[in-house]
Write a structure and sequence with these properties.
Elements lengths: L10 H16 L2 E7 L14 H18 L8 E5 L12 H7 L2 E7 L6
Parallel strand pairs: 1-2
Antiparallel strand pairs: 1-3
Length: 114
């Protein structure tokens, strides 16, 4: 979804978020967008830490959804996890690509704590 050290959405990521938008428009869910990194120290001066980078990735997705849908902002939130929850060990470039991701976690509307 993201290039190394970047919070800019790839074209593939934009297509995937389009599917998320369709699901959100047709169902009554709240959405938590969880950003992740590969654990490599960000080389960009924009993000001093992986915490900031992961939060920026989640926020970028949230902004994209807001800009391309009528889904209310109150139904979404963005959270950064840095490299705390990898899918795979970040020992190869392929694994690192998998860990540079966002997750879309759906919760039913009306749930008291989300």
């Amino acid at each position: 979804m993201f290039a190394r050290g970047s919070a800019q959405l790839t074209l593939e990521a934009q297509k995937a978020i389009g599917v998320v938008i369709e699901g959100m428009e047709n169902k009554r869910f709240n959405l938590i967008i969880r950003g992740h990194t590969d654990g490599e120290r960000p080389e960009s001066t924009l993000y001093a830490t992986n915490w900031e980078l992961s939060a920026a990735r989640a926020a970028t997705c949230l902004r994209y959804i807001l800009a391309h849908s009528d889904i209310p902002a109150k139904r979404m939130k963005a959270v950064g996890y840095a490299s705390a929850k990898p899918i795979l060990p970040s020992t190869t470039e392929a694994n690192k690509r998998m860990n540079r991701r966002v997750e879309f976690f759906y919760l039913p509307v009306g749930r008291s704590k989300w």
